[in-house]
Amino acid sequence: MMTRCDCARAETLAGAIALDEADETQRDMYRAHLATCGRCRSNLGGERAIERVMATVAGARDAERWEPELRAASMRPRARYPVWRWIAAVAAVAVLAVGVRAMERHPAAATVAQRGTATEQAVARAVAALNTQTAPRREHEAESLTFASPGSGSMALALHLDGRAQGRCVVTKSSGNRVLDETVCRAALRTLSTRH
Amino acid sequence: MRRPAVVKPMEDVYPGAAPAAIARARAESLVLEYQVKLTRYLRRMVGDAEVALDLSQDVFLSAFRMLQADPRRELTAGWLYRAATNAAISFLRRKKVLRMLPLDRDVDRGAWRVDERSAASVDLQGALAQLPPQQSAALLLTSYVGYSSAEAAELLGTTSDAIRQRVCRAMRVLRTVMSEES
Ligand SMILES: [Zn+2]
Description:
The complex is a heterodimer of chains A (196) and B (182). In chain A, 61% of the residues lie in helices and 11% in strands. With 196 residues, chain A is mostly helical. Chain A has three domains: 57 residues, no CATH class; 39 residues; 88 residues, no CATH class. Chain A has a three-stranded antiparallel beta sheet. About 21% of the residues of chain A have low confidence. The interface between A and B is large, with 53 and 59 residues. The complex binds zinc ion. The site of zinc ion (ZN) has 8 residues of chain A, from α1 and α3.
């Protein structure tokens, strides 16, 4: 007959197994407990049973498609808290401030953004956004770039650059205009590689 | 197992920028990087998309205020998840609802319908609806978000063994939910 203490220990071991954190010694201890305790055997189950149950959590996570966007949500007609609108304004100001600072350093981009076509403006914004990103880069890692695209919502790019400044770009969130997306993506990648 | 990245302190990232600009830029990048992950976690915790969006908004707002007060303050992903967990738990207590999802596993509510309705997702949500919030948080922070039991323990102010035990108890409920179906 097992004591309560042993069964409590078995729960901890089962949790470690569930999280794939148990070493062989711990797994042996768990097996030994199950061999002598019918209650834990039926309540907690063996290692395979634990893994099967836990696969549900990973499965749910990996199947998830919901892409909540706080700024988009702030446009909901019925906001629960007025604060939604406030942070949307803060975020807009933040984007604007970053963009303007970048354009001060890059007058050409500013000129294009003021006078250019929608495509030129989008490219200028992407380049301006890139120029504000001064975080150190690591080779072979993607750089992600999210910015507002004029008249067509926001666009997100993932720019991958390898050691020889060869790269590829992926549109991770489309502005809804494929030609524009591709043009902006290529332009941003060119900028990135010349600065590499 | 996927691990949430740690937000690096930004001392070197924005050299020479004004403190207010650093605060804004850091708050902005936190939102861009974590809004999806954090709001998904919150929706699992509270079982309602609208509430999750509101709570998530509150968390980012307090992060923004902290950065306004001290633009160079270190703000980790862990801080966001701790704040989100506390927000979810106090919401659940405040509203005196265990979970907003009905226990009969009919998840055809407007708030939940935005999601895929995979069997795994429905099972998980069915189990979460029955769990005490601390067990939900332990299960989600580890196997859903990707923290180790030691990291989750630090977030929730408890021990690694306590997290493992909560995960085990959550797993038992999940197992019951799954076997009810088959
Ligand atoms: Zn036992």
